[in-house]
């Protein structure tokens, strides 16, 4: 008995518990274990790296730590904590950025069709034949037409080619015109002072470019060039969201949403012949949410028709537009419960700063409606119960970090809830929303910003690879083995090239 | 057998599962249950309100919803999502703010002594006799002295009274002088462009006011007036952090930290005689962290001496200063493991935007060192494992929302991690850090901003009451029953007065 007591009192002396060194060791061990457990738990931790990957990882981590350490010492030099417009070109100089650019990034699962390509690209569309322009106040409207359009115009319709060449200076004219195709401005924080202002500018881009891009030949060229740009960005597959606007041609024909969807499918087929190494694309029909219930019912009918007409091309259905101003999803519950029998859902939800307001609670609707993925889910970290549901139901979160910065949800991406999603190893896919409108590269900027600015200093190549793999896993592609296999080929090639070119 | 199959196939038809209405009902029920479960789980949900409290709750929630709904419609009108300086005076007009001002708020568990009172208060200290000033470049130094100080001065020491009255215009002179005692400026986001800049200005306040406030008679008056201000703010108790600087008097005496602590105790005793309804105060010795290990060892010796000299007055120990620039806690592990035998810890940790950097990992050190509470823990949401530890060990998080906004951790408080802490019902106490330096009311602004800007729209009076109760529960006061009983008396009086005055 006494021996037991003695042991309890002093027995640990040798293992250190009652000595100074022992106590310190214990605390250090506890600290180390906690940190290790955290690293073991984080997003990407289940990936095992090959020897070659380990070498690339070392290169990547050296570059990352160097950039972080400079920022830690002098925070004013840490670019990605600022507004995206202030550093978007600057970081292209980063070696790490260039490396990420080369990296196969899997798929894009959250992007809106006409917001993908850059203002430079859109500008060159204005060089197409038969394009008329009408300058109205501070804005303008486009229309392709054989002759002067008869649509009302506050000033007058002019052939854009004539206006451009009679402007005196084509360069200045084009520079002015280009501004209509981008949100990028100097001092964004002084101009876009609240979320509605920036959303207004954002939505005006779509309104302004509709008649330009919805000209059927342009539409098809635009999508072809989207696919080309994705391929060049080392993205192999896309599930593209579209409002499927009506298209038109020079003969006065106007085509409905089903034709728009069909034209996407035709372009895709053509592209896959030209570039057989590209994996493919599917469509998420995502019309505007600022409507009434009967319109939503009609949307669902359109989606069903598309699915019937073009079997296998429609991934599913969503609703888009500024959540805070649009109708909350719960107003369409009846229609969406019915639609669920025919459609998979990929709802935008919780793209908001508000807590407990209707837009925030769209997260609940998305989940109970059986959404396969959630667009943004920015507000998710405020809903622990929904985090559990998302894990349980394996619903992916489509995160768009730069979009959330530009559209004023978060000023410093280090505060983006993605940091906590990654720490908890939630099913995250990373995407770019409308990269063209803020002049981001199609996916590289979002990957870079996430890796350097959002994720932990400890997060490494495994995080990047997992982001790519998740974008395949949470896609609607049926044959995942083939998809992942094709990715692995590209990935191995990338790893080898990094080692070979001794970055 | 067939009956069973038939039942399985159709038996739910009546309960609705296979009818349209039934399916919709099920989805609505699931939605409602999830939202209800979330509300049941959130911070404050364990509080039961009396009938009178329910009445007050209704008043409060009407006011809150009104403010939120205006902001939701027109976000530019939603003040608390902006920089604190832009709305701090404006919200004093809010009826809800005035109500919160009246509300008993329990204790302040995280505030730094010389940062508590307003610039107007500090300005009036410069009217004291025997105060000399030395203007140096853009800055100035103070010193109380019987005759012209012999300390070096880049210009010359002048009796402040003479300078003021020979300035031509006392009002202008005082307005200029006042600027040295506040961080508040116009367009803060354009001036304080990074965290180091604002921390520099912040720390200069402390350096600049040291010789002014460390004059022993001023020191004692300042603390007396802190206690008075707390009482007027309906705060009943404080655990005040102090670096315990050396005090001095006109006779050339310089007093060490133990005397400084003693002078606090003396003032407290005097105050409690004058205002016996005030509950009390304790001291957290919190010297600067930007030091070496041997200095920390010395700090601990000082703390032990204070605890020995003034039994029961010392709540514990902490280290202060900008975490990102100071030494990480792990450098002092050895000293702090030893100190733990004698002292309770209340470490600042994770007051940073960085993820996985040394400052972020101070959170691990604080926890393994057995801290009773954590100051700020802003980075905690990035560490799910530590969230579990905090729950398990019942470590309180001392959140200071407005401080985090002013000191540039978060631009829009709707993104403050406190929102997620409250949703998860973590042990939160709300405090104000250095309210005087940003001209906030001692605790009301932080309560208001948390209630309207951070917490869910659904969070009600129970959240406010729980914040107050937690500040008592997580204090080091031994007789919690007495403390809570005294709070309840004040609370009931408040509830009755709101009803009586029909807000």
TrEMBL record, chains A, B:
Organism per entry: Galleria mellonella
Coiled coil location: none
A Gene Ontology BP annotation from the UniProt entry: adenosine catabolic process
Reaction catalyzed: adenosine + H2O + H(+) = inosine + NH4(+)
Entry keyword set: Hydrolase, Metal-binding, Secreted, Signal
Protein name: adenosine deaminase
A GO term from the CC aspect: extracellular space
Necessary cofactors: Zn(2+)
Domain Adenosine deaminase: 197-482
Domain Adenosine/AMP deaminase N-terminal: 29-100
Keyword Signal belongs to the record: yes
UniProt EC number: 3.5.4.4
Pfam families from the UniProt entry: A_deaminase, A_deaminase_N
Residues of the signal peptide: 1-15
GO MF annotation: an example: metal ion binding
InterPro entries in alphabetical order: A_deaminase_dom, A_deaminase_N, ADGF, Ado/ade_deaminase, Metal_Hydrolase
Subcellular location: Secreted
Presence of the UniProt keyword Transmembrane in the record: no
Gene3D superfamilies, A to Z: Metal-dependent hydrolases (3.20.20.140)
Catalytic EC class: hydrolase
The family this protein is said to belong to: Belongs to the metallo-dependent hydrolases superfamily. Adenosine and AMP deaminases family. ADGF subfamily.
